[in-house]
Design brief:
The complex is a heterodimer. Chain A has helices spanning about 10-15, 20-40, 45-60, 65-75, 90-100, 115, 120-125, 135-145, 160-170, 180-195, 225-230, 250-260, 290-295, 310-315, 315-320, 335-345, 360-365, 370-385, 390-405, 405-420, 425-430, 450-469, and strands at about 80-85, 105-110, 130-135, 200-205, 205-210, 215-220, 235-240, 245, 270-275, 280-285. Chain A is α/β, with parallel strands linked by helices. In chain A, the strands form two sheets. In chain A, strands 1-10-7-4-2-3 form a six-stranded parallel beta sheet, sandwiched between helices. Chain A has a four-stranded mixed beta sheet with strand order 8-5-6-9. The mean pLDDT of chain B is about 95. Chain B has one domain (about 35-200): Rossmann fold (3-Layer(aba) Sandwich), CATH 3.40.50. Classes of the chains: A alpha/beta, B alpha/beta. At the A-B interface, helix 2, helix 3, helix 4, strand 1 and helix 8 of A face helix 1, helix 4, helix 6, strand 9 and strand 10 of B. Strand 9 of chain A pairs antiparallel with strand 9 of chain B, so a sheet runs across the interface.
Chain lengths: ~475, ~200
């Protein structure tokens, strides 16, 4: 993995160049946000559900070793093989070994963010193991050799015409198809034979239930239930933070998940796997990959509460107007911006700055992660670790000194007013002022609040005090 | 189990125990809750099912279940059945290969229960006679559901239905397969069944 910081602003600017893409992306995600709101408004218990979900996740994370042990014991008792992977590389080796032991070489896979996080396809394919994504959005991204743009709708940055071109190349369909139905049908027809011939099925999972040793997969297309059940070998990969203590706790999370994600009351398929099918074999791989370390971070451990609904992405004005590809990561949007730096602080050092700090992400989060607070805290951490660019760092330092001294600040403000009025544009808008790249600096004001207050109120207040005395 | 996986497990456990920021005493286990509307009526189920893209298939005067299915799917050649109420062209137990199931036009099953909040129907290896994938390969699905087997919402489902603790595979299907992955257009009938219809029976 390259260590170079992701040029988020530059990539976003490229995405914004094409008006139809920019417009659709913004509208589509905002539509998802509004559908979420509609669901929220018809449920008076919504805030109580969020509180319960948050408390359940916090409790589970505080007792994670004990619940992991409980899950493992129950899953084993049900006949599931449980594996542990410290990182992505170990996960990929485990998958490879399971396939080799069976003499298998083709994986049919439903959508899972964590296998992307582990870069599993990149590891397995050169070794002669084919991995076919069967989720439509994920398949589009695979064919275009791109990371998912969004945790729920992986190809949301694309228009029908983009998909038509891609499918024409790989599925021999008409490159001018402008009906999404025809393209979805093409995917169904292309996926069926692959599904029927695949020797290994792989899924991710949304929840692990400690009490029963089950795991739950929430999907819409039906491809996960086909991928898991058609072959006799099913491998499921989940992060160790995916646990809930009791079966009864699922009620809270299932009621929140799809409503927060798409504004639908539930996913079309909510699938509970508790043991292998008759004559089949089932493996669960529990992946750490930096999670245990994150659980040790006082400021950031609650990001592990995330249930990957994508609500924070849909609501974020920066994400909506920059596109998932600009984050250069498997996880984009506000949640990506707070978890990506735990994987690589240098590479993802730009992402916590991709925010207006409006706090909307925090307000829509179904498990009440304080996302915008963590964005702020990451900025501080990254500044301390010198992971932010020179200009931004030095300007922040100067601003810090200035803001700490009232006299200096006022002097500077009156100077700025003069500058804004009199200086030519090339002095005000240059590389030292990245803020001004896409924005106009504020109009100079005739009078600052401070000078107005001094003139009109301060003396009157003093007079008032004197008459009172 | 190999030494390698043993050690990975122990390393992860050790890291968690040593480094974990949230302390156990500060985060007690919240009691199980049952929130929101708990109406378990067939009327609520029907409204929810429609919202998820599923359909009700009401029987006409004097009509049997099999006749109703034939009325709705006149072109159907293969009607596969997992229920005694319908004879069909073949029984689900008779499916020997997935390729055979791939040719099924309509599959009939009985759900263990339904959820009024979401219009979901629960199917497990018991109802599917261990043909877990075959139900999803069929083009259309007909689900028989008893009005006596409804729960109000998802809290009720997980607390009251024992199937979640007994089934090896249990899917709550709420309407047919769907996708909105291409330019946000909602398409009912993605990779699993193209339609899902419920008959009260």
């Amino acid at each position: 993995m390259s260590n170079k910081p992701v040029p988020h602003a530059k990539l976003a600017a490229e995405f914004l160049k094409d008006e139809p893409h920019r417009h659709f992306h913004d509208e589509r995600l905002w539509d998802m946000r509004q559908k979420r709101d509609e669901q929220m408004h018809i449920m008076p218990e919504w805030q109580e559900l969020r509180e319960q979900a948050s408390r359940l996740k916090e409790h589970t994370l505080a007792h994670l070793p004990q619940y992991l042990e409980q899950f493992e014991e129950n899953a084993r008792r049900n006949g599931i093989h449980v594996h542990w992977a410290r990182d992505g590389a170990e996960h990929n080796r485990i998958v490879e070994k399971i396939l080799r032991d069976h003499g298998h070489s083709s994986i049919i896979k439903s959508k899972s963010m964590i296998t992307d996080e582990c870069e599993m396809r990149e590891y397995l394919e050169p070794k002669g193991i084919s991995v076919t994504e069967t989720d439509l959005g994920e398949r589009i991204q695979q064919l275009d050799n791109q990371l998912p743009s969004h945790v729920v709708v992986p190809a949301v940055q694309k228009l029908t015409s983009d998909v038509a071109k891609t499918f024409a190349k790989y599925y021999n369909t008409d490159p001018n198809i402008d009906d999404p139905h025809a393209l979805a049908e093409a995917q169904r027809n292309a996926a069926r034979p692959v599904l029927l011939s695949g020797d290994t099925g792989m899924t991710g999972g949304n929840f692990l239930v400690a009490e029963t040793g089950s795991f739950v997969v929430c999907t819409n297309e039906g491809n996960a239930d086909l991928s898991a059940n058609l072959p006799n070998l099913h491998i499921a990969t989940l992060g160790i933070e995916r646990l809930v203590p009791r079966m009864a706790d699922l009620g809270v999370f299932i009621r929140l998940l799809s409503r927060s994600a798409l504004g639908s009351p539930i996913t079309q398929y909510t699938t509970h796997f508790r043991k292998p099918k008759k004559g089949g074999e089932m493996h669960v791989i529990l992946v750490d990959n930096g999670r245990s370390e994150r659980l040790g971070m006082d400021d950031f451990w609650t990001s592990l509460k995330c249930i990957r609904c994508g609500a924070c992405m849909n609501t974020c004005p920066v994400y909506r107007r920059s596109g998932g590809q600009s984050y250069g990561s498997v996880y984009s949007g506000p949640i990506g911006a707070i978890i990506d730096p735990t994987f690589n602080a240098k590479k993802f050092s730009t992402l916590p700055f991709a925010s207006t700090m409006n706090g909307s992400c925090t307000n829509v989060c179904p498990v009440k992660i304080d996302i915008h607070d963590q964005l702020y805290k990451w900025r501080r951490v990254l500044a301390e670790r010198h992971e932010i660019p020179f200009v931004k760092r030095e300007i922040m330092k100067m601003a810090g000194r200035l803001l700490a001294q009232p006299t200096m600040y006022r002097l500077a403000i009156s100077g700025t007013e003069v500058a804004l009025k009199t200086m030519p544009r090339f002095v005000l808008y240059n590389y030292l002022n990245p803020w001004g790249k896409h924005r106009e600096l504020p109009h100079p004001v005739k009078e600052t609040f401070h000078s107005w207050y001094k003139k009109n109120r301060l003396n009157k207040a003093k007079q008032h005090e004197e008459t009172q005395a | 189990m190999s030494d390698e996986t043993m050690s990975a497990r122990d390393v992860i456990m050790q890291r968690l125990k040593e480094k974990k920021s949230p302390q156990e005493g500060a985060y007690p286990l919240p009691p199980v809750v049952t929130l929101g509307e708990q109406d378990a009526s067939p009327e609520r189920f029907e409204v929810s099912l429609a919202l998820m893209g599923g359909k009700m298939l009401p029987l006409q005067e004097g009509e049997g279940i099999e006749q109703a299915i034939k009325r709705v799917f006149p072109e159907m050649r293969n009607l596969c059945t997992a229920v005694p109420e319908v004879k069909g062209t073949l029984r689900i137990e008779e499916l020997e290969t997935h390729e055979q199931a791939d040719k099924v036009d309509v599959m009939v099953v009985r759900a263990a229960f339904g959820v009024a909040e979401t219009g979901g129907v629960f199917l497990s290896e018991v109802e599917l006679k261990d043909h877990l994938a075959d139900v999803h390969l069929a083009q259309h699905l007909i689900v028989l559901l008893s009005k006596d087997e409804l729960v109000g919402n998802m809290h009720n489902a997980y607390q009251e239905r024992s199937e979640f603790r007994t089934a090896g595979y249990g899917v709550l299907m709420s309407g047919p397969s769907a996708t909105a992955d291409i330019q946000g257009v909602l398409i009912r009938g993605a990779q699993g069944v193209r339609s899902l219809s419920v008959i009260w029976a």
